[in-house]
Design a protein that fits this description.
The chain is mainly α and 273 residues long. The protein has ten helices and two strands, in the order H-H-H-H-H-H-H-E-E-H-H-H. Helix 6 packs antiparallel against helix 9. The longest helix is centred in the N-terminal third of the chain and has 29 residues.
Length: 273
């Protein structure tokens, strides 16, 4: 992908992230009062290390999804500003990872049930869009590490297309119970344990790929990028299942810090190329 074409792609991503953020802000006035009622009807507690020790807060999940939308918009804008004239093949996959957080606003559909009758089809569609965004973002950061390890740069479009198709097939086949949700306003999905294992596996492979890149290219900056990927993954998992303020705040902090590590080091690697 040429530099000009990539920058057009970046602008489209910023527009989508801005639309998602505006939607979240607009809907806040309608759905925030519904948080206590929906939280009280949750069928189970969302998973999380800190959530074992603290009581769930009904407003924290909305803060987490709003924080995710804000993260997507801010990070994409900053990446466009700093990489507008810098060709780095990995960065397009990092932006897709950031953009994936825009779909967290789909959790608002769960809250709308407290205000009006929502057809089950809409709940199912929102849940599948949410799953697609989460898996696509996860695979995109993994793809960035594969590029760093030496994948042919001419295959960007094919890789993005393949990731989209694979993610679509996964999200369409996952069983979803639209009548139940957890304390973070996520609909209950099947295969949760299996997907957590897959996430851990992708995390390990991603970090290892960046470490291999540091060795094969002789550039220690990729070690920091690997550390940043680890922090971003941890922050992502905390943020997406947060039902307490601590998890939401720590999640966005780790996510932003990890993204900053990744982007600043990639910019340094490719600045003079």
């Amino acid at each position: 992908m040429t530099l000009s074409g990539r920058n057009i792609f970046f602008r489209i991503e910023i527009f989508l992230a801005a639309a998602a953020f505006v939607f979240t802000v607009f809907m806040a006035f309608l759905v925030i009062p519904a948080c206590p009622g929906i939280a009280g009807e949750a069928s189970r507690r969302a998973p999380g290390f800190f959530q074992r020790f603290l009581k769930a807060d009904p407003y924290a999940p909305f803060a987490s999804l709003a924080g995710a939308a804000a993260y997507a918009l801010v990070s994409l804008t900053l990446i466009y500003y700093f990489f507008e004239k810098t060709q780095a093949p990995e960065i397009i996959f990092v932006t897709l990872f950031a953009l994936s957080f825009s779909v967290e606003g789909m959790r608002i559909v769960t809250l709308l049930q407290e205000r009006q009758v929502i057809p089950a089809l809409y709940l199912l569609m929102a849940s599948r869009i949410l799953l697609f965004g989460r898996f696509f973002g996860l695979f995109s950061l993994f793809a960035a590490s594969v590029y760093a390890a030496g994948l042919d740069q001419q295959e960007e479009r094919n890789i993005i297309f393949t990731l989209a198709i694979v993610t679509l097939l996964i999200s369409l086949r996952v069983p979803i119970d639209v009548l139940t949700w957890d304390s973070s306003y996520n609909m209950i999905n099947g295969y949760n344990s299996m997907f957590r294992m897959v996430e851990i596996g992708i995390l390990l492979i991603t970090v290892i790929s960046f470490l291999i890149s540091a060795w094969s290219r002789g550039d220690p900056e990729y070690v920091t990028i690997g550390i940043g990927s680890f922090l971003a993954f941890i922050g992502r998992n905390l943020l997406l299942s947060a039902d307490i303020w601590l998890s939401a705040a720590l999640g966005i902090l780790l996510l932003a810090t990890g993204t900053w590590f990744i982007c600043t080091r990639l910019h340094k690697v490719y600045l003079w190329l």
